Amino acid sequence: MHDIKLIRENPAAFDAGLARRGLAAQSAEILSADERSRGLQTRLQDLLAERNEASKAIGQAKAQKDEARAAELMARVATLKESIPALEVEQKDAVEAVSALLAALPNLPEADVPQGADEDENVEVKRWGAPRTENAMREHFDIGAPLGLDFESAQNVSGARFAYLRGPVARLSRALGQFMLDTHTTRFGYEEVAPPVLVRDEAVFGTAQLPKFAEDLFRTTDGRWLIPTAEVSLTNLAREQILDLEKAPLRFTALTPCFRSEAGAAGKDTRGLIRQHQFDKVEMVSITTAETSEAEHERMTQAAEYILETLGLPYRRMLLCSGDMGFSAKKTYDLEVWLPGQGKYREISSCSNCGDFQARRMNARYRPEGQKQTRFAHTLNGSGLAVGRTLVAVLENYQNADGSVTIPEALRPWMGGLDAIRPA
User: Is residue 389 annotated as a catalytic residue, yes or no?
Assistant: First the structure.
């Protein structure tokens, strides 16, 4: 959500930020709606004050036995009592109209975010590891089939974009999730959380999936939403709170199933685990102050990179351009892992600084030390990592000619000491 005060103070800067997102100017429409809302509020306050004064004056007139004056005032109070409720409804609708305009607009890019329309204009800022480029490298669905990666059974049970993980592949997937959780909690100080995966409208609005992206989500018959990412559950821990953030940020991590309709992904990644309706992901969320959010963004990204480096998976860090960032982000780094079967880098983590954009929607605040006024917190979220895509990366990068897959050394304690998984 945007700060209406900043739009009033500098509408040109607001429109310039939207232009970097590829959007038309909106400040004139917003300020017109805001002016109407404030005008109605002033009118309502004036009428309420007049009613209160008239009510007091009735008693004074009666005390003075001025029945004519008392009758005149009573008639005026009766008229006001009839007109005020309609004005209250009109003013409430006007406030909601302003909120709806603001809620439909994405966060504005930071100054150092490169200008661009789509992923082709993202900027590589770091590369780690030496990619495998041998001939005849197989893709994960071919490698995984003899190891327990079963799409055919899932198709019969659930339809497209689902998978059964069985036997060695299931164990490898579980080990990856546990390794990630243990690393983020013990090395990087995130608090492990087992959150709800069903949430209410307010929670999904708070992290900005609603109202714009409802079609990307799954909804239950009782009106709850299946989370598309644990970002929703974790970030909303700060909802309607005044937080103590002066000593250290709040840092949460969770391993959860995630559910996405992939409404706009027809024809994309139809084979394999890259784009599923249901998948596991380890999420990181930080809630911090305005002064520390930039450093926290770098720290979070490095935590995700540490997972990749410890697993020996080549990757690159991309700074997303203004046209490729998510709706609530003001700056995003994507980590793209090398997949030798595809012969290219693919996204495996996205780490975003949302500034106070989500906190305004959730009313998540903190009180700076020594100050009476509260400020909106800054929220950040990142994948640490997507478990399914990490499984893809391990299968492809550690594949062997005999059909086995070598277990990365760092992962072996979570695999009971196994050095490889092999076809049954």
Answer: yes
> According to DSSP H, which parts of 317-420 are helical?
357-362, 387-397
Half-sphere exposure of 264 (CA within 13 A, CB side): 4
Give the active site residue among 37, 350, 352, 404.
Answer: 350
pTM of the model: 0.93
Class of domain 119-421: alpha beta
> 398 by DSSP, 3-state: which?
coil
4-103 placed in CATH 1.10.287.40: yes
| Tens-level pLDDT at each residue, the chain (424 residues) | 999 999 999 999 999 999 999 999 999 999 999 999 999 999 999 999 999 999 999 989 888 888 888 889 999 889 999 999 999 999 999 999 999 999 999 999 999 999 999 999 999 999 999 999 998 899 999 999 999 999 999 999 999 999 999 999 999 999 999 999 999 999 999 999 999 999 999 999 999 999 999 999 999 999 999 999 999 999 999 999 999 998 899 999 999 999 999 877 777 887 899 999 999 999 999 999 999 999 999 999 999 999 999 999 999 999 999 999 999 999 999 999 999 999 999 999 999 999 999 999 999 999 998 888 999 999 999 999 999 999 999 999 999 999 999 999 999 999 999 999 999 8
260 is catalytic: yes
Place of tokens 């200008």: 115
Q: Is 275 a catalytic residue?
A: yes
Domain ranges, ordered by start, for the chain: 4-103, 119-421
Residue from 136, 159, 417 nearest 278 by CA: 159
